[in-house]
Structures are given as structure tokens and as C-alpha cells.
Amino acid sequence: MCSKATMEEFEALLKESFEIDTPNEGSVVKGTVIAVEAGQAIIDVGYKMEGRVDLKEFANPGEAPEIAVGDEVEVFLDRVENARGEAVISRDKARREEAWDRLEKAYADEARVEGAIFGRVKGGFTVDLGGAVAFLPGSQVDVRPVRDAGPLMGLKQPFQILKMDRRRGNIVVSRRAILEESRAEQRAEVIGRLSEGDAVDGVVKNITEYGAFVDLGGVDGLLHVTDMAWRRVNHPSEILSIGETIKVQVIKVNKETHRISLGMKQLQDDPWNTVEGKYPLETVHTGRVTNITDYGAFVELEPGVEGLVHVSEMSWTKKNVHPGKIVSTSQEVEVMVLEIDTAKRRVSLGLKQTMRNPWDVFAETHPEGTEVEGEVKNITEFGLFIGLPGDIDGMVHLSDLSWDQRGEEAIQEYRKGDVVKAVVTEVDVDKERISLSIKALGGDKFAEATGGVKRGSIITVAVTAIEDGGIEVEYEGMKSFIRRSDLSRDRGEQRPERFQVGDKLDVRVTNIDSKTRRLGLSIKAREIAEEREAVEQFGSSDSGASLGDILGAALKGDE
């Protein structure tokens, strides 16, 4: 009876012992290292249970494992017993559980955590946070892109947890947030010591198209390209290089945004202070073309002093040409100072003013009446443009092409490239116009032929053609036409066919038209004039004498 009671008590105690002291699977337990062999540590977790853990689970990334017999460690109990009768335990899982508890508390407190970068993955790196593995995005490694992350691998350093999800096992950390916070404190300290106008030393950290960032000892300032030198700087790399130490002046400090504007040229003398004295108006100087635009070219007179040659001041003759076809970058040219605006730091320059006006030169060397020769540059509906010395053009109007042909007909005989001769008839320097005449080359034949002829004069002409409406005649090489009605006073004699080519006829000049270059001629008018003259000399109609008597008397008188 007593023996039976003892067995029941033992079973109850054993059952109670199992229920109370035997650890649950999936929990962290403490154990003691009892042996290290074959790359594994044998750990006694109590309750007559032992398990094995690979030594690498006791090592930090990049370090050798530090474990020895007798060390007390915490491990994660996966199963109480496996097929070999050993407990299945893990040091990594124990560290992970411990780490997650610690990291969750740090995340809630927004505290920093310590870790080491140990691997590279797509888009970033892996970080060991003392048992838990976190993801470090590439953009969160540093305040600026990191080309080589080698020096950071395995180095214990602080990180900021950005996001974590225990259920999914995700942790995202940032190293950049730590650096920015540290830099912000350092920046505030440095900015507090800076004042506008201070001259300080700095190191060029980065160069962009619009300027350079200069490290002033923990805080960066922007040195804009326009503040690097008084002269034009096309790109900062022309005068600066990364890593170079330079002296700059603090132009502006914004205490709130921590932005600092720097300048280099402010430490040098401003060349504009002496511009008016060195470059008086209408003086000529040599400069270098630094930039070419659609509206002109910039010419550097000295470092820091540039002037603009407007396109209208570049050439006397090339009016609608891009400046790049007249000058080229880096070319040395002579320019004249036209205007200075010190307040706006502007100098207006002229290129053509350094050369004589070609229209003035032409007017001096080719007075009116001078014969010139040139190539037909252009043919328009109102005349020809002829190339002349000095790279200028003269125009021959339609009305100045020929004496005998209409302008529209005469211009058909010319082609671009033809070399022609002409006479200068007018030079207008102000309007930059030169008028030429081709028909004036041989003189004015009409004027020469009719110089001594007046209206009412009797001249002798030769018949050159017989037509139905009259006859064509010629006088001193000038052609005229006598209409049928003007061939005779007597209607019966107004027949063109009674004349022959080559006949010489006395005719009366009824009109002289210099525009149409025609003489108005009439045989009828001559006969009427002769009759009137005879009547005046030998009688009148009132005397009773007949016309035959008067003419007979006149003829007898002549005899």
C-alpha cells in the first residue's frame, strides 16, 4: 500500500516537473557550452537535453567566432528532440528574437542602432543589426552617391531605422539620416561663426555647369559661375578643379536655410572702376571675340570688361548676315568705343567704324559721269544690281538700260554673272545708294542729234520704210514716223506709195519729246508754213490776187 502511494506521488511530481520546467518549443532558453568539435558547439540546455550549433552562428559579420567551453549562451529551441535524440537549437534565431525586441524598442524611441554592412544586394546593401538583417537602400548610404562602398563593409556604425515589419521580417535602415543630422549640427556651428564679407579658405568639392560647391569645414557654400571672375567664365572647370583649396568671400548667409553664397571676384579689384578713363569714346582698341549670338558679338577689351558689337555695327555692306559669318570666337579684332554705361556695366562697340565707309570712298573716287565695270549680282523687276569696288552694289534702273528699247525688253538680254559697263549718275552716301546707267555709255544720241533743232525747224530726212499708215524716216540716226495725214496738204497727195525708200524730204518739226525720244514731223505742216510765209511777203487774200499769182511772184522773185 505504501509502495503504491509512493509511485503515485513520484508520477505526480514527474508530471508536474514536466509541465512546469520543460521549456516550450519555439522559445529562447539558456545553455552551457560543454564541448567544441567539428566546427560545432555542443550546448547543454538542461533537462537532460543537448543540442549542436555551427560555430559561424556565434560570429559577427567579418569576424572569427568567439566561443569556449563553459560559456553560457542563449539559443532558440526549435524542437525538444530530433531523430538522433538531440534538441534542435539555433543561436541565430535566438539572436534574431533578441534583436527584434531590441530594435522594436529603438524604433519606437527613434533611437539609433548599431550595425555593420556585410553584403550587397540589388538596389542597396544588407546590414547586420546584431542578429537581425536589415536592408540599406543605395540612396541612404551617404548624403552623396557612393561609388565605392568597400571601405564601409564590416565597419560597425550607427543607423536609423526607417521602417520595420516583424511579421514579414523586413527592416529598412538609413546611414544618410545619421550623417545629415551630424552635418546639420556641424553646419549650424560653422554658420554661426560666418559673417557676410568674411574671407575664408575652402576646398572645391563639386563642380556643376552653374558653379562650384566649396566645403568651408563642415558646411558647403555655392560659388556661382558669375562670381568666380570679373571676366566671362563659360564653365567653372576653366579656373577650378575638384580638391583645390581657394580663398573666397562670404557674400550672403541664410541662417534659416543654412545656404551660403560665395564669391571669388569680390576679393579682386573691379576693372569697371577705370573703364571710362581707359576707353574714351570714339577710340579704337584691340579685343578678343569671346561669344557670338544672333544679335551680335561680345568682345573682351581686358579681363572682366566686355563690350557688345551689335550686328548693325559689324559691317557697312553685310546687312542681313549672322555675326558668326563675319567674326569667329577667339579672333582678335579692332573695335571703336561707341557708348559706355558704367551703371549697367555695358560698353557698345563698333567694328565697321574702324574702316572707312565704302560709299564715301566710292563717291570720292567715282564722281558722277565716271565709267565703271562690274558683275551683274542680281536681276529684279525694276533693274540690275552691279557689283562695285568696296563690296558695294549699284543699281541700273529699267529706264537706264537702253535708248531704243523699253526697259522690260532690254533687261531680258542680261544674265547674272555678266560683266557690264555703266556710267555713275548719282551717289547718295546717306541712303547708301548708287545709281548707274548703261544707256549713257555712248552719250545721249537723241540729245546730240536734236541739239540744234527747235520746234518749227525745217530739217531734211531720209525715207527708210513705206507703210500703209505713213512713212518711216531717219534724221541723224534717229527714227521717226510721218503719218499719212501729214504727208501732204492736198488730200490726193497723202499717199505713202508715192515715196520711195531713200528719198530725201524736207519736213517741219512739230514736236520734240525727250521722254519717248521721238521727233514729231510733218510735210503738211511745212507746206502750210511755206504758204503762210508767201502770203505774208507777196500779198494777202484781201488784195484779190490768187494763190497761183502769189506763188508765181514768189518763184519769180527767187529767180
From TrEMBL:
The keyword Ribosomal protein applies. SUPFAM superfamilies: Nucleic acid-binding proteins. Binds mRNA; thus facilitating recognition of the initiation point. It is needed to translate mRNA with a short Shine-Dalgarno (SD) purine-rich sequence. PANTHER family: 30S RIBOSOMAL PROTEIN S1, SMALL RIBOSOMAL SUBUNIT PROTEIN BS1C. This is 30S ribosomal protein S1. Belongs to the bacterial ribosomal protein bS1 family. The keyword S-adenosyl-L-methionine does not apply. GO terms for molecular function: mRNA binding; structural constituent of ribosome. GO terms for biological process: translation. GO terms for cellular component: cytosolic small ribosomal subunit. Keywords: Repeat, Ribonucleoprotein, Ribosomal protein, RNA-binding. InterPro entries: NA-bd_OB-fold, Ribos_protein_bS1-like, Ribosomal_bS1, Ribosomal_protein_S1-like, S1_domain. Residues 26-92, 110-176, 197-265, 282-352, 369-439, 456-524 form the S1 motif domain.
